[in-house]
């Protein structure tokens, strides 16, 4: 039965007294600063914190923005590996600062996204981080603009990761990766290996991410003077099943190709499986290139040559941008950070060469 | 500029009037019931909801427990595929009821878990769902008991998924799967194929999940009258790297084995890769069995024979238990649901036969 349960409200002084340390030390242990604390001291303080159930009070204010800042991450689907790594990056950088982070999933539903953004705003979170490609440019711009302004008005902040930047003067931070350049580099790698007939599986036609990956690939074909065949492009969702069925269908039509540019590593894994069950060897008969460089890329056989996207780093960069903006407000008062409001950060991508791409067999 | 921004608080009546529907219809559209609403009506109502920024008000109460119930899911690591599927199941069943769900990650840190549970309790969530195996039985029992009682006192509820049930009269719901039986079935499958020298990679020694998987395997050896060799057991984390390095190390020691019982599909993928780079074929030379049946299991080559764990179903079952308990309280008043408080639900597991296990080569 803790003192708190016995009715008296526990204060940080009670914790400090019982642990035999200063109040400053307790607040450092509770992580509202990054100040280092000896492990033994930390353990002793946390033991008292548990005994007195003190964290309850410390965190009572947390989601209300008064104490430990909290960041809300909203993604389409929690089982999507790529964005789970962004969330991991945000969480890592948040934990380092003693912040809390929460993830909500929208199931790709704008209404649910709206409900979650509003709920998080009402909870006074330090920032709402939205992950993932977007559909429908105009409706998207309108919706994001509303989110950005309503969060800003509430003293919170909108951060878009892996999404297109917003047009006009909108108070949001965008953290992106050079999607088109990655696709250009990957296609160039395949073309320079000698491939000329390439099946392209960019992803969902309406998704900005897929549009950028297709555009980057086409630019490479132009640069190499290789005619681009729209008949070898298959749009579809970013999943294993699409990679599998698209390849099966194109092979069934008797279409001839020596390489596959997959929109994601998962799509590449499905495409590879479809080639194998058809009796084609990867990369001996057909090369397969992925995109994202999630762990799966090095867990399949052959290991995928793919485009590395710094997902976890994007998450860390996003959280740091939020933290700096907040620090700026604290030091110079709200509004001081305004010039940084429409910050656009773009991280680089690069090709990771593994075993799934090699020159086409002579005669093909 | 919405009416709300103009200062007047928007009510559900404003939405109903402007959309030309009844207040009941608006509340149905906003998902506080499962009552079906025509798509056209839903679109019209949501358009008004957006225009008036009404969802803000509807969801202002949500995390405070007064309106849309919210469930908090806490997991060790958001990139862990198995528990991401439990979270997906919880979210699916929550969305079906118009509930919100949020995920927090603990990074396997008890202090962080405590901070998140307390923060969620303060937010008045309907339930806190803790996912994943647990270490240290006694400390774990104490900590969970505290969580369960403090959440119960706050009108919330603790749900443990994939964790050991709590001893004594603790107000918590446990949703589990038959972990040991799955390991027993998988080991029996491998032994009945004729394997006698089996490398076992159960997972982290202190983790209850790993202990159950090892115990199930040992029971199968006893049942088949095959001596179990503790020298062929390697504990380690549930990741690809452990599967890879454990197999490399055992092969380097010249130990002889014809099959690998991996603690998870990810460990199995690492083990398979290690065998391949050593020039051993799977399953021709060595068979490999996984556990979990996450998508990766059918994305690797050969596709893994593994144990199916109904992760997503566990999530749905957990959310339904919370919803029923809440409904019971609403209908019969708080306390009416008490008999169901210490509910233990255990879902079944079964072997999924794919391509990674076959009889050992003659002479081995």
UniProtKB/TrEMBL annotation, chains A, B:
Gene3D superfamilies: 3.40.50.2300, lambda repressor-like DNA-binding domains. Keywords: DNA-binding, Transcription, Transcription regulation. The keyword Cytoplasm does not apply. It comes from the Bacteria. GO terms for molecular function: DNA-binding transcription factor activity; transcription cis-regulatory region binding. InterPro entries: HTH_LacI, LacI/GalR-like_sensor, Lambda_DNA-bd_dom_sf, Peripla_BP_I. SUPFAM superfamilies: lambda repressor-like DNA-binding domains, Periplasmic binding protein-like I. Residues 10-65 form the HTH lacI-type domain. SMART domains: HTH_LACI. This is LacI family DNA-binding transcriptional regulator. It comes from Streptomyces roseirectus.
